[in-house]
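Readers outside the structure-tokenisation community will struggle with the description of the input data as it stands. What matters is that the chain and its backbone geometry are given together, residue for residue. For illustration, here is how one protein appears when written out as sequence plus structure tokens:

…
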Amino acid sequence: MRFYEISEAKNVNTAIAAKLWSAPVRISQPNYVGYIDVTVTAANPQQARQLMQAQYGVDLWHIGSIKEVR
């Protein structure tokens, strides 16, 4: 574990407040097409969409409308 000097502290990335996002995702397999509700934690809806795409390996147009979970 490394301890930072006070002069180095300004170079350390600070945590961005993350929110919970939800969207339906279209999953297609041989002989099956269905939708699942997916939730991810991200700073904004664009990052949430990218996370959903990476986690489920789907194209962007298979991700429905992203909404913040309150």
